[in-house]
User: Which sequence fits this backbone?
């Protein structure tokens, strides 16, 4: 709606003198100032680490912070295993799905002679894992894509301020943080060592013969049992000797 300014506003003598209105405005400002300065603080539960004893409603960030919603995505972290190593197996899935292409990974391979038996059950590990937090659009796709629960955005932290761009490029020492995570399905929890289990790939081929699946033929005859021998079964092997 258009605003119509009148050239002859109706004002009384007090308004036309200006001084009383000026003093009235100053009184309102002073009242708010004194109330904020001396009265008890507004106990706003939506603000973390509320400090001070006045009613100023401005959040003094970063000392005070507003509460984030439960699904808030903060800075990335590489999730460590119980032994402190990253859970990451350098599969590149997060880097592949990242729409901002801000993840850079270089993979290393555990030696077959590695004395660390935990490492032997995993083929690869990241020698470099870098995220450019300035390019990140905080979409969370890397977290969803990771098959090892190795990258999370559960730190609840903003990217801290830096003086140059390189400060926003986080590498493994910066990213590897937070409590370790362990799952029963982790290969280093499933098997004690890297040596192939005695019946690797065998069960799928011999379960009928071992009676695990009592298969019956349509005619009612029980299926002929498969001979189980100690001979190696010609299947693809995914683990190294
Ligand atoms: S949150 Fe999205 S943009 Fe950021 S690193 Fe992950 S996939 Fe890339
Ligand atoms: S963080 Fe997850 S998705 Fe990314 S390379 Fe490591 S294991 Fe793969």
Assistant:
């Amino acid at each position: 709606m258009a605003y119509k300014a009148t050239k002859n506003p109706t004002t009384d003598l007090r308004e036309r003198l200006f001084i009383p209105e000026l003093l009235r405005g100053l009184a309102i400002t002073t009242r708010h100032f004194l109330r904020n300065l001396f009265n008890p603080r507004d106990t706003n539960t939506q603000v973390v680490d509320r400090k001070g004893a006045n009613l100023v409603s401005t959040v003094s960030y970063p000392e005070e912070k507003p509460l984030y919603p439960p699904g808030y995505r903060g800075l990335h972290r590489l999730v460590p295993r119980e032994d402190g190593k990253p859970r990451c197996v350098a599969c590149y899935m997060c880097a592949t799905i990242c729409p901002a292409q801000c993840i850079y990974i270089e993979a290393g391979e555990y030696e077959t002679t590695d004395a660390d038996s935990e490492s032997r059950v995993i083929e690869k590990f990241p020698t470099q894992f870098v995220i450019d937090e300035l390019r990140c659009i905080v979409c969370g796709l890397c977290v969803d894509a990771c098959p090892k629960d190795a990258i999370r955005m559960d730190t609840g932290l903003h990217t801290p301020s830096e003086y140059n761009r390189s400060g926003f490029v986080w590498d493994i020492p910066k990213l590897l943080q937070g409590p370790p995570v362990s799952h029963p399905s982790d290969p280093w929890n499933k098997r004690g060592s890297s040596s192939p289990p005695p019946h690797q790939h065998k069960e799928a081929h011999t379960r009928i013969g071992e009676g695990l699946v009592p298969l019956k033929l349509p005619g009612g005859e029980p299926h002929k049992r498969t001979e189980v021998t100690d001979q190696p079964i010609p299947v693809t092997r995914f683990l190294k000797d």
